[in-house]
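Quick one, tokens below:
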């Protein structure tokens, strides 16, 4: 059951990151064309796009871990007040590492698609607009 939930969550994460970052890469085609004119190789431009994707997913992973921790504290406080049970759940360091690891994995898995979108940029067409 946990594996199925992880696969579904990972699939949704990959689809969301690929869509949102794909729109961002498409919007930044002019900047990528400028990098090509300045002399950045295709590999360097792909690395820029990959670094941006991984940075965004890591930031999202950190935000998700922080919101999860706050939510868990609020849940424990509410249950303690209503029922008298001291703690329903605990925050394990393994869960934090797992969440951040999955966030990084999602950024890496979406990187080839985003690099493809970025390298598909026609330099002359973008700079002549």
């Amino acid at each position: 059951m946990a594996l199925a939930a992880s696969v579904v969550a990972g699939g949704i994460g990959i689809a969301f990151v690929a869509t949102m970052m794909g729109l961002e890469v498409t919007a930044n085609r002019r900047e990528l064309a400028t990098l090509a004119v300045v002399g950045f190789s295709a590999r360097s431009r792909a690395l820029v796009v990959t670094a941006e994707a991984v940075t965004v997913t890591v930031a999202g992973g950190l935000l998700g871990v922080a919101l999860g921790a706050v939510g868990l504290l609020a849940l424990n406080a509410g249950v303690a007040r209503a029922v008298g049970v001291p703690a329903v759940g605990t925050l394990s360091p393994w869960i934090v590492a797992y969440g951040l690891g999955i966030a990084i994995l999602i950024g890496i898995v979406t990187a080839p698609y985003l690099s493809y979108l970025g390298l598909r940029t026609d330099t002359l067409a973008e700079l002549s607009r």
